[in-house]
Amino acid sequence: MINHWLFITLVGTLFWASSNFVDKYILDKRTKGIFDYLFFSTITSWFFLVILLFFVGLPELTVYSLIPIFTGILLIASYGFYARALEQGDTSSLVILFMLIPVLTAILAYILLGQTLSSNELLGFFIVLAGAMIISFERKKNVFTKGLGMILIAIFFWSVMYIVIDYGLTKMSFWDYFLLDTLGSGLAGLFLFAIPVMRRQIINGLKTATVGKYVWFSANNFLDLLGQVSIKKALTIAPSVGLVTVVTQVQSFYAIVIGILLTLFLPSIFKEDIAVRNLAKKFVGAIIMFVGVYILSV
Questions:
Q1: Domain boundaries, the chain
Q2: What value does the mean pLDDT of the chain take?
Q3: CA distances (Å), 274 to each of 116, 249, 263, 267, 286, in order?
């Protein structure tokens, strides 16, 4: 019988993989551009904030309260680079590269916090990097895959966030952190209005928004929330954080399969390169990176 934590992790990761493709659809079909996408991604933050205030209450405000507000703002900033990458490249190829996050996080922890790197972590780093090169490099064209630069910037932001969040959670409870982080995300949406070019696109997006647009964004944010809740629950009952970290990397394989299915059955909406050679490259690269993350985590 499958372990409860394993099942929850697999389901939560599926929510996240599905959300990646909804992001792609929303960007292509439902928004006026990246700034419009970013703003609408923050609208539900205010709804969640009200709910959290009702159940959790107002947290004690200290200088450390700025940490979760900062990570909330940084999250929305990272979505800008993530969205740009989705506009340029295949969703599944970009999602596979998410496996670079634990590697970069370990490196940043070594540089910024003075944490040591074991021989296993160094070996895992080089293996993950090798898998990333296989996925990212298009040998026929002698170029890297589209969107690589943008997704690497987003991955760097997310890695910084993990380190900052880890520190912030030593200063306050999880629910206080989550509430203030949500506030930060909501504020980030308002800050977009300060820049004229962003403000014009957002206002245009609001004027032309349909009910369907609000439904798609709400549904996508709910998918992401389900993923977050599932993984956080798994972390509380799993034998170790490392095991959950490894299992969440199955998101890459979910993304490949979802990309194939959507291309076959909804080609007018989603279209990825599902040539046998390209799929083989994705699977081989993903497997190599998975092995690297496993070595890194044990």
A1: 4-297
A2: 87
A3: 41, 21, 8, 11, 15
